[in-house]
Amino acid sequence: MSINVEETYVGDPGPSDSYDGGGSGDDSSSDDSWVDGGGSGDDTSGGGGPPPFIPNASALASPVSSLVAPAAVQCRGCGGGGGGGTTTTAPRPPTSFTISDVLTLAPAAVTLTAEPSTWSIVGTHTNFYTAAAQHSAAGSVLGHPITVTFTPVSYRWDYGDGTTQETTTPGSPWEALGQEDFTATETSHVYTEKMSVQASVTVVYTAIVTLANGTNIPVTGTLDRASTTVTLELFTADTVITVGDCNEHPQQPRC
C-alpha cells in the first residue's frame, strides 16, 4: 500500500504536472520521477524533480503558529477504508513560559491591614501587614491544562507620606509578635505630621507552571500585585497630668 501526502508549493507546476510515486516501493528505488505534463511553464529551472518548497509570508511572520493551531495532514488511502481524510495533530505542550503567558491566571487579590486600622498617632509606630501567601490557580495554555503556583518573594510598602520600603516579610499583628501596641516591627512606620494618608503594599510573585503530566516549569520573570489602599487619619497626642479620668470628669483642668 502506498500513501501519498499532498503538499502545496509556491510556483506549483500546474494541474497537468504530477509526481509519479508508483515506483517499486523500495525507499532506495530510482523509479519515482517528476513527470512534466505541460504545466503552466512557471518552472524555469529546466531540470527534473519537484520545485523547491518556499514557506509563505504569513508562516514566516508567525514563528509560533505551529503551537497555536493543530497541524493538519491530508492523506489518501489512510486507514484502508478508501477515500482521503484530514488527520489533526494536537500541538505539543510548551516547554517554557514567561509571565505574560500566565497573566490570565493572576494571583489572588492582596489585602493590607493597618494597626490601628483607621487612625494613628504622629510620632508613634503604625504597624502594617498582609496575608499574601503561596497559592495556585488552574487554567490552560494552547489547549493544555496547567496549574500555576504563585509564591510571594518580596513586599513593597508605600506608607502614603512619600516613604516606601521593601521587605521579604509580609509583616504580622502586634499580638502575634508578642509586642505592645505602637511598638516597632519590620513593617511599621512612624508618621511625622498630622495628615490623612493612603497606604498600600505591592506583593512581588514568582511562578511555576505544572503540566498535566506533573512536569514543573519555572516561569521567567516576576509578577506584581498591588493591594487596595488603606486610609489613615493621623493625630497628635500630648501627655498631661490630670485629676482623675478625663472620660469620667471631663470638666477637670487640662481635660
Molecular structure report:
The protein is mainly β. The protein has a domain of 139 residues: Immunoglobulin-like, CATH 2.60.40. The protein has 3 helices and 17 strands. Strands 6, 8, 10, 11, 12, 14, 15, 16 and 17 form a 9-stranded mixed sheet that branches. Strands 1-4-5 form a 3-stranded antiparallel sheet, with no helix packed on it. It has a 3-stranded antiparallel sheet with strand order 7-9-13, with no helix packed on it. A hairpin with an 8-residue loop joins strand 4 and strand 5. It starts with a strand and ends in a 20-residue tail after the last strand. The N terminus is likely disordered.
Strand content: 35-45%
Q: What is the number of helices?
A: 3
CATH class of the domain at 97-235: Mainly Beta
Multimeric state: single chain
CATH level-3 fold name of the domain at 97-235: Immunoglobulin-like
Please name the fourth-level CATH homologous superfamily of the domain at 97-235: Immunoglobulins
Biggest pleated sheet: 9 strands, mixed
| Order of SSEs | EEEHHEEEEEEEEEHEEEEE
The percentage helix is under 10%
Q: What structural class results from the helix and strand content?
A: mainly beta
* Contiguous runs where pLDDT drops below 50 for at least 5 residues: 1-46, 50-78
End-to-end separation: 105 Å
- Rough outline: rod-shaped
Q: What's the Cα radius of gyration?
A: 35 Å
Overall residue-averaged pLDDT value: 75
**How many β-strand stretches?**
17
CATH architecture of the domain at 97-235: Sandwich
